[in-house]
Amino acid sequence: MDKLHGNTAGLKARIIEELEQLYDFKLSSQEFVSEALLEEMARLTEVTGKEISVFLSRGGKVLDVSIGTDKDVTLPFMRKRRGMAGVSGIRTLHTHPNGSPMLSDVDIGSLISSRFDAMAAVAVRAGKAVSVCIGFIGETLEQAKIAGPFYTKRIPQQALMHEIAAATERVARLVRVQETEDIPERTVLVGLNVSEESMEELARLAETAGAQVVGTVTQSRERDRAYYIGKGKARELALYLSAGDADMVIMNDELSPLEARNLEETLGVKVVDRTMLILDIFAAHARTREGRLQVELAQLQYTLPRLAGEGVSLSRLGGGIGTRGPGEKKIEIDRRRIRRRIFELQKEIEKVTQQRELRKTARRESGVREVALVGYTNAGKSSLLNALANAGVYAEDKLFATLDPVARRVKIPGIGETVFIDTVGFIEKLPHELISAFRSTLEETAHADLLLCVTDASSRNAEKQMEVVREVLSSLHAEETPQITVMNKTDRLASVPETERDTVYISAKTGEGIEELIALVAEKLTPRLTSYSGMVGYDRGDLLALVNKHGKEVKLDYSPEGVRVEAKLPIEVIKKLKG
Q: What was the pLDDT predicted at 281?
C-alpha cells in the first residue's frame, strides 16, 4: 500500500491505515472529484482534527496523500513535480477543518509555483464536506482564476475538467512567451542572528548574481546543526515559499552538507548558501585566465566535501587482497576527478604566480614603487584607479564588479612612475576557499610599498567594513605596511568631516580630493634618508648609479682605492652598499 506522508505524530495505526485507503479511490477521466472521496476526506479530517491533502493525476488516480494541521500544508513533496513546460498534470484537494472553502495565499502560491492543474479547498463542518472552491492558473503565470464555491452535491464536474484543459493551453502559451525572456530566479533570503545591514548586503549579492528578491526571513536562536534555522521554522519557510512563488532560498551563512540536504528536502526548492552565492558571482565576473583558474579552484574546493555518497567505507581506491569489491562508485570517481583537477589548477596558478613575480622583480630592480588599492567590495577602488591613471577599468555600482588584479603606472611628483594595483574587494564572511584560491593575488598587498584602504564614506556600515578589511589584511600579514585611509564617495555626503592623520576624503566620480591624495601618496613614498659614509670600488658602477639616483647631499671623493661616498640614502640602498 502507498505510504501516508506528512505529520502522522499521535495518530493511531488504525487511523493511518484508513488514511492510506484513500489511495484506493479512482475517478473517471471526466470527473473532477467524486462525492465519495470528499465524504471520506471530511470524515477523516473530523477524526484527526488535521488537514488532509490528496493529489490526483489527470486520469483520476490518487498519487499522494498527506496530512498536516490546519496551519501546515505539506506540499514540498509535490512541489518537486512542477511542470516547467506547462501545468503539472496534477490537481490537489485539501480540507479546511475550520469550515471555510476559500483558498488561502499559501494555496494560491502553491498552485502557481507548482503549476497544478487545479487547487481545490474543501470546507468541513461536523465531519461533512460542505462546499468546494477551486483555483486555476489565470491569464498570467502569477495570477489565479477562482471558481466557486460550489456545494459538494452540485459540483460542475465536466465544466471543471474543461477549465483544466483551457488552463493547460493557456499555461503552455504563457511558458513559450516566457522562454524568450530572461526571467530572474525568485528568491527568499534567510538569516540567522543577523543585523538588518547584513541582510541588505545579502540582498545586493543576490541582485548582483541576477536573482529577484521576493522576501526576507530572519530567525533568532541557536544554530540547528541539522536544519540551520530549526525544523519548525523550515516548515514555516516552506509555506512562505509557496505563497511567494519562490524558486530558491539563499542562506546568509555557509551551510554544512547535512543542513543543505535537509533544507532542500523540506523546502522543495534550490538552497544556496552565502559561499555558493559569492562563488557564483566570482565565476560570472572573472575575466583573465588567472582569475578564472582561481575561481574554478575555489568552486572545486567548496564542492569536494559536499559530494553525497555511500561514504569512505565502500571506497575501492587500492588494489590487491582486502581491497577487492564492486569497484569504484560514481561518487568516488567524481571525488578522484575533482582532486586531480584541483592539483592541476594549483600547478597552473603557480606558473601564473611565477610570471607575475618576475614582472614584480623587474619593477623593483628598476626602482619602481608599488601602491595597492584594497578595501571592501564596491568601495570604489576601480573608479579611483580610473581617476588616477585614466585606466579604463570596468567599474559599476555593484558588489564584485571587478575581480582581476589590474596594474597601471601613475607619475607621482617627486617620486616618478609608480605602479598602482587594483585588487579584489573584501566582504564580510569572505569564503575561506576564495582566500585560499586568491592568496597569490591578495598577497600583492603584503609586498606593496603603500596600501590605499578605500572605504565608502557614504555607507552607514563604513566602520564595520573597515574592520573587515583590517582583519583580512592581518591574515595576509600586511598590517605593518604603510597605509592611507581613502574615504571615497564624498559626493554623496552632505558635509565632509575633518580630516584625520593619514586619511583623505575624495570623490573618484567628481575628482574632488584626488590632488590631496596624490600629495599624501608622494609624502608616504618619499624614502626616509639615513646618513651613509663608505667606500665603493671602481668595479661597482651599478652601486654608484644607485647613489646618484636615490641619494641627497651626495659627496664623492675619488682615490686610488675607490670612491668614498658620503650621502643621505634610503635604507634599501644602504643595505646594497654594505652587502
A: 82
